[in-house]
Amino acid sequence: MNFFEYQDRARRNSLLLVGLFALAVVLLISLTTLVAAAAIALSRGQPFSFSTIEQLLGWQTVISIALTIAAIVALGSLYKLHQLNAGGSAVAESLGGRKLNIAPQNSNEQRALNVVEEMAIASGTPVPDVYLIEDDAINAFAAGSKPTDAVIGLTRGCVENLNREELQGVVAHEFSHILNGDMRLNIRIVGMLNGILIIGLLGHWLVRGIYPGNRENRGRAALFGLGAALMVVGYTGTFFGNLIKSAVSRQREFLADASAVQFTRNNTGIASALKKIGSYGSKSTLTSGRAAEYSHMFFANSMKRSLFNLFATHPPLSDRITRLDPSWNGLYPDNTNNASQSQPPAFVESAQVSTFAKSAPFQAALDAVDNSIANPSEQQVQYGRQLLQSIPSGLQQAAHDPFAARALIYHLLLHKEGAERQVQRELLNKIAHPAVVREMRQLETQLESLPNSARLALLDLCVPALRALVPQQYQVFKRNLIKLLHSDGKIEIWEWALYRVLMHALEGSPDRQRLSNKKGASKDANCFLLAAIAHSGNSEYLPAKRAYEQGLKALGIEATPLPSHKDINLPRLDKAIAIAGQMKALDKPALLKAMVLTLSHNGVIKAEEIELLRAVADSLDCPMPPLLPAQP
Q1: How far is CA 591 from CA 2, 523, 533, 580, 616, in A?
Q2: pLDDT at residue 553 greater than cutoff 60
Q3: Residue 322 within a domain
Q4: Dihedral angle, C-alpha 447, 119, 124, 500, nearest 10 °
Q5: Residue ending a domain, choose from 480, 504, 528
Q6: In a domain, 309, yes or no
Q7: Which of 21, 247, 281, 601 could covalently link to 192 via disulfide, CB atoms 3.0 to 4.6 Å apart?
């Protein structure tokens, strides 16, 4: 099963989840109706049976109960989902998390940040915000509704008690949740459970505020009874909701463990981390009062075991370890050393990834669409680490600073030609903050030596720092980028690619105004993107036309006139990619393969074209790892 099939399955699982919770709401309505009918029968001294419900309540009352319960659940769910609309940061901050990307405070925190950055670069996703949860438990989580707003949360115990190999296994496990579409499902579970829980909370508030024995409240005994009934109904619904949550979560943990091994080609790291949790007893249990709400998001059980493990959101540790390490003897190690005493495994640089990609064979790019999207190999993980190491330390430090990160992005968008480059420099002197321009000049020597293959990696490193800009700073920065793109009166496709990757990472969903309900809009958008790509690799019209028609043929579209290079502008490109991004998951690989065919006019795709392909894939929410260098 590849990425696109996983995405399609995630969509179907979301529909199944909605169906299960709808069934839970129907049961709530039925239970509420029974309780109401029984209460009325008791107050009248009449015998109660199912056949008397209609006589006791009447259909109008039954419908009113159903509408009221459904409205309470819907409002409670929508309220919670609105709270979590900010992305994974809302979850991390509710757990008391501190963001590490800008200012890690010690070597362990820096190591954890490096591991996350390496995995993000290797998998082709934006570098997520990394939050440290001040808790001694060994645990972690991924949260968000999509890769562009995802965060990785790591507890203090995880950062300090795991060595680098173990930490890489845990982080790879969490990245699999990001790439396999699990996060959106997790967020929806939180929202739906909150809607059901609201009913029980309403009853709890009524019971707390009314005491039948109190003289002032003697006439309000009915409200007390209503509160008690709502508590029974609400917490019964929560019981079934938690059962659904646990059942959905457990199986996905096995998949995430397997994906982590597939990413790293190393079952030792994640198995050792699980063994270490087992050796500490309940060392994965968090102390935060919000841990129960997000229990299904964590790497291991974040709550103490319940009766018969009915609500366990994760499979037993022993089962997970046995699947990862079949030779395990069932004994947990005696952990007397912490991560600072444990030496991480030496990094062995593979000869196959010892150079940076200047080109890629046509077939390698096609295979990447089928097999590498959201599924980096061990070599790509190592290559991602090499890409990170190829970025000078001064640039890495600058990428973590909201001020200096702007200077890096401005420089990445500068033309290589002298005249156009000079025009852009003069423009930046007028519109950018003087200190940002000075910073760019100071970093210029290091930036000039940066391999083209590492440009997207450096841009990804800047994303968490740029997210920290206040809204006014961000709007000025975005406006300056657009002016920089328009400075020479034309849009180069590589400029747009870098800009689009950045905007997708910082803003996520496209402007709804760019979307179109017009019949054939998706086909027109695909044709326009192929035209832009054909022009990017060919300065002359006839080769561009042949490349364009090759891409159209791959999509099964009849040949149409090639739009001129002048027609390729920023608004039309943004609109085309926004429309293409709305395609079904299983339709996207055909477009990406058509782009590969369009780019491969000479059988080889150059580094700049690889960068363009990955940028478009990223904008379609199809994270593509860096392509490995062509081998002799």
Answers
A1: 16, 10, 12, 9, 10
A2: yes
A3: no
A4: -60
A5: 504
A6: yes
A7: 21
Q: Are 94 and 143 in contact (CB under 8 A)?
A: no
Looking at the structure, tell me whether residues 450 and 481 fall in a common domain.
yes
Convert the pLDDT of each residue in 472-502 to its tens digit.
999 999 999 999 888 877 777 778 888 888 9
pLDDT per position as a tens digit, 204-215: 676 666 544 554
- Domain limits at 277? 90-176+267-317
Number of folded domains that form the chain: 4
Helix (H, G, I), strand (E, B) or coil at 152: strand
**pTM score, whole prediction:** 0.79
Q: Which of 227, 253, 279 is the last residue of a domain?
A: 253
Domain assignment present for residue 328? The answer is: no
Q: Which two tokens stand for residue 198?
A: 């609201």
Q: First and final CA of the chain: distance in angstroms? A: 30
Q: Is residue 346 part of a domain?
A: no
Q: Where are the alpha helices (DSSP H) in 104-220?
A: 107-123, 156-161, 164-179, 182-209
97 within 8 A of 87, measured Cβ to Cβ = no
CA 281 – CA 229 distance, rounded (Å): 39
pLDDT in tens, 521-547: 888 888 989 988 888 877 788 888 988
**What tokens appear for 73 in the block?**
């659940």
Task: Check whether residue 18 and residue 167 sit in a common domain.
Answer: no
Phi-psi region of 152 (alpha: psi -120 to 50; beta: other; left: phi over 0): beta
Same domain, 397 and 494: yes
Residue type, 152: I
| Cα 188 from Cα 81, distance rounded (Å) | 7
Ranges of H-type helices in 45-179: 53-57, 59-83, 88-94, 107-123, 156-161, 164-179
Same domain, 84 and 94: no
Count the alpha carbons within 13 Å of 133 in the hemisphere toward its beta carbon. 31
pLDDT in tens, 603-632: 667 777 777 888 888 888 888 887 766 543
Instruction: Spell out a b/e string for 252-275, using b for 16 or more CB atoms within 10 Å of the CB, else e.
Output: bbebbbbbbbebbebbebbbbbbb
Q: Which of 176, 180, 151, 5 is nearest to 86 (CA)?
A: 151
Which contiguous run of DSSP H or E holds residue 536? helix 521-536
Is 257:277 a contact under the CB 8 Å cutoff? no
Extract the tokens encoding 553: 């043929």
- The reply to whether 196 and 161 lie within a common domain is no
| Pair 291, 365 in one domain | no
Per the residue annotation, which of 109, 118, 166, 174 is the catalytic one? 174
Helix, strand or coil, per DSSP, at residue 207: helix
What pLDDT sits at residue 408? 94
The answer to whether the CB of 443 falls within 8 A of the CB of 404 is yes
The 3-state secondary structure of 354-393, one letter per residue: CCCCCEEEHHHHHHHHHHCCCCCCHHHHHHHHHHHHHCCH
Q: Is 174 a catalytic residue?
A: yes
pLDDT for position 228: 74
**CATH number reported for the structural domain that contains residue 273 in this entry:** 3.30.2010.10
Same domain for 31 and 15: yes
